[in-house]
Structure formats: structure tokens, C-alpha cells
Amino acid sequence: MSSVHNRALSPAELQAFGAELDALRARQLATLGARDARYIRRVVAAVRWTGVAGRALLFLGAFVHSVLIPAWIAGVVMLALSKILENMELAHNVIHGQYDWMGDPQLQGSTYEWDIVGTADNWRKTHNFRHHTYTNVRGLDDDIGYGLLRIFPEQRWRPFYLMQPVVAVVFALLFEWGIAIQDLRLGRVFAGKMTLRQLGAQFRPVGRKMGKQMFKDYLLFPALAGPFFLPVLLGNVAANLIRNVWTYVIIFCGHFTADAETFPKECVRDESRGHWYLRQLRGSSNLTGGKLMNVMSGNLSHQIEHHFYPDIPANRYAAIAVEVKDICARYGQHYNTGSLPRQFGQVMWRIVRHAFPSKPGRARALPAVGEASRQPG
């Protein structure tokens, strides 16, 4: 458990804390415009052209054997970059509805479909609703360990968790597949709470998406290379693995560092606005690293700001963070940030430490709740 101490807030301070953060959100929404539209369209172009370059380089290496290795490596890097940008900076943010105000049918959060084996519809349920509404609330946020890992001592230990250092590595490599089946909740079948027929009905749209993605990456594009099918296939596999591992690292750093907290279900009952912001703050972790880190992480390097304002274009988070840090400092609240090696090192320690039995630490209660409120956006 973290040794961080946050100053206790009185009901009046808690209300003022929420009001200041609400006011910051309102100022940002009032100024959305051409700069934001131009930015996301540049991201769309970057995704398209890095993808084209990556696939072209894979074909070049396949047909011109004198440059096979360097072209293959460059092709994998460019294709992985395209997939990372699409998943992190484009799809994740568009699906949150950050660009619905533009009226562009290709950038609508309710209809956008992304380049992974999981469906955007399932992500909208598991992530946009469940995770963002009940961030780090045990029993309500399925992202706590994803049903596979014990990361916090408050999670009940089972012998299966002894394997989790290995499970975590496999999960990182196959992260898009874990995301794809997350909403299926396979444990309900083993518990007798869902029939195989019901599971099959839920799986059909997921299965169609899996088939479409596998056909594109592992059959269509490799087949276009004719007799050089194998190097193109392996290039696609490698690009997807790189994207999966990077996404896993960024997402795990967002909520599973040493200073991140989990909360009991009772904390969301009649949750006030200030209380909701406080829970998002204490359950989230940021990353330092500058503009490159921001873009490559889909601006989840500012996970705190993202959880405060999931419907505000993420390219604004770096500027918003300056004000958020100031507000947190004035109210005596810890702002959890650090370098990628530091934050992910803490995540890995949690995974290894809590594979073994451990006693829950003393719970740190949030302030008493006041008026009822809900998540923005």
C-alpha cells in the first residue's frame, strides 16, 4: 500500500474542489474548434500513411531479397506505429465521443470501429461505461486485474494467482484478445450462471470481428505477396504483438502503480461531484515523457485528466494538466505521476508481490459523500 497521505477535505472543500474542476471542463468545452479538428484529421492521415508505408516495406523486403531484413524490420516498425496510433490516439479517443461535435460520420464515437479483434461496442460497455463510471471500485470495475491478475491486496487470493507472473506476460502479448472477450465474462459459464447457448449468442459479433481482423492481417495481405506469404505474415504478427504489449504497458501504468487505490462498492452510493473527482484522482496514474509520449500513449500519459474529462479531446490534456496539478496542490491532494520505467516497475512489482498471499492493508476512506452526482460525458 502507498505511503502517500492526502489531506482530509471538509464537505465544503470537497464541494469547492469539484466545482473548480467542473469549471475547468466547461472552459475547455466552450473553446473546441478548428484546432482540435485539424489535429485529429492529422492523426487520421498519420495512421493511414504509416500503415501504407509499413505494408509497402514488408512487400519490398519480400520481393527484393537484398533488402529483406532491413525492409522487414522497418515495415514492422511502421505498421506497429500505425496500429498504435490508430488504437491509442485515434480510436480510443473517438470512441469516447471526443469529436462528436464535428459532425464527421467517420469520427462518431457511437459508430467508430477500430483495428483490433475486439468490437468497439463491447469496449463502449466495458471501458466507457463500466470502467470510467466505477474506476477502481472492487466488484464493479472489471479492469482491476481483468479477471486474471491479483494486483491489489484487497483482491481475494486464490492458488491460481501463483501463475500470474507468467499469465501477465501472455496477457501482454495477446492483449487485444483479452479485450475482445472481456465482456463475455466467461467465468459465468463455469459458475453455471450462463448457458453455452447464451454465450454463443454473445460471442457471434465478437467472432465476426475476430474473423475479419484475422482475414485482413493473416490471410489477405500475406496472400498478396504470393510465394513470399510467410515474411509478410510474420511482419503482421510482429506488428500486432508490439502494439499489444505497448497498449498493455500504458493501460496498466494508468491504474496499477504503487500510489493507485481501489475502493469498496459503498463509496459510490450517493457519490457527490467532488467525491467522484477525488476517486478518479486517487485511482489514476500519469506518465512523464513529453509530446512523443503523449501521442504514442493516446495522451493516456495524462490518465488523471482523461478520467476527469473523458469527452474532451485528448490533445488538450497536457495544457489542462497544468491547472489540474495546481488545483490538486491547493487542496492537498497527491498528483500521481512518474516516468514510464518507474511507473511500470511498480506495476510489475505488484504483479509479482500479489501473486502470493497477502493481507489487505488498512483501507483509506474517501471523504463523506454529499449531494448525488454522475460522471461527465
UniProtKB/TrEMBL annotation:
<keyword id="KW-1133">Transmembrane helix</keyword>
<keyword id="KW-0560">Oxidoreductase</keyword>
<protein>
    <submittedName>
        <fullName>Acyl-CoA desaturase</fullName>
        <ecNumber>1.14.19.-</ecNumber>
    </submittedName>
</protein>
<dbReference type="GO" id="GO:0016491">
    <property type="term" value="F:oxidoreductase activity"/>
</dbReference>
<dbReference type="InterPro" id="IPR012171">
    <property type="entry name" value="Fatty_acid_desaturase"/>
</dbReference>
<feature type="transmembrane region" description="Helical">
    <location>
        <begin position="160"/>
        <end position="180"/>
    </location>
</feature>
<feature type="transmembrane region" description="Helical">
    <location>
        <begin position="57"/>
        <end position="81"/>
    </location>
</feature>
<feature type="transmembrane region" description="Helical">
    <location>
        <begin position="218"/>
        <end position="239"/>
    </location>
</feature>
<dbReference type="Pfam" id="PF00487">
    <property type="entry name" value="FA_desaturase"/>
</dbReference>
<dbReference type="InterPro" id="IPR005804">
    <property type="entry name" value="FA_desaturase_dom"/>
</dbReference>
<keyword id="KW-0472">Membrane</keyword>
<feature type="domain" description="Fatty acid desaturase">
    <location>
        <begin position="71"/>
        <end position="337"/>
    </location>
</feature>
<keyword id="KW-0812">Transmembrane</keyword>
